[in-house]
Design a protein that fits this description.
8 strands, Yope Regulator, Chain: A, two-stranded antiparallel sheet, alpha+beta, signal, elongated, Put_sensory_transdc_reg_YbjN, YbjN domain-containing protein, about 40% helix
Length: about 170
């Protein structure tokens, strides 16, 4: 009976080992996919879209891409392991200088009508906007191009929002 229990334990371990091994890291990035676990694919897609990306690292050592569109922005890689690889998601983020207008009410006015790009006021008074993208398994080129289009169009709408909300009204005659 004891040998049967040991055999069952060994078999159970054998059945679960491949699952554990698979989930320890992301599968390799497939051909023609854009993957957070392959930062160079994100960089290449951003170059193709004209965002002038530059690869660097964040303060934790995880990959980060600096980009330029209508505003300067960063793409942070999240869900990375301790070796700063096998990342599983991205965060597109733009920060704006500290200003008296950067209030939770101002951010909420933007957020009330927006679904993808969310604004917040950081503890230091900077206004930030962010767009998170899950990347497990990667995105095909068309899907990631759509992500970049959404990011860009939301930044264009944000610029119009700033102009409408922060430009003083002309004095009445």
């Amino acid at each position: 009976m004891r040998n049967l229990m040991i055999a069952a334990a060994v078999l159970t371990g054998a059945w679960t080992m491949p699952v554990t091994a698979q989930t320890a890291g992301q599968p390799p990035c497939g051909k023609d996919l854009v993957c957070a676990n392959a930062p160079q694919t994100v960089l290449a897609a951003m170059e193709k879209a004209g965002f002038k990306p530059k690869m660097s690292a964040d303060r934790d050592g995880d990959p980060m891409i600096e980009g330029q569109g209508i505003f300067r922005f960063n793409v942070f890689f999240y869900g990375c392991d301790k070796q700063h690889v096998n990342c599983d998601s991205l965060r597109f983020e733009a920060l704006f200088v500290k200003a008296p207008e950067n209030t939770p009410a101002f951010a909420n006015k933007w957020n009330a009508g927006k679904r993808f790009l969310q604004a917040s006021v950081h503890a230091d008074g900077q206004l930030g906007v962010a767009y998170d993208v899950a990347m497990v398994g990667g995105l095909n080129q068309r899907n990631f191009s759509d992500v970049l289009d959404w990011w860009n169009s939301q930044l264009e709408e944000l610029a119009a929002f700033f102009k409408a909300e922060l430009t003083p009204a002309a004095p009445k005659k």
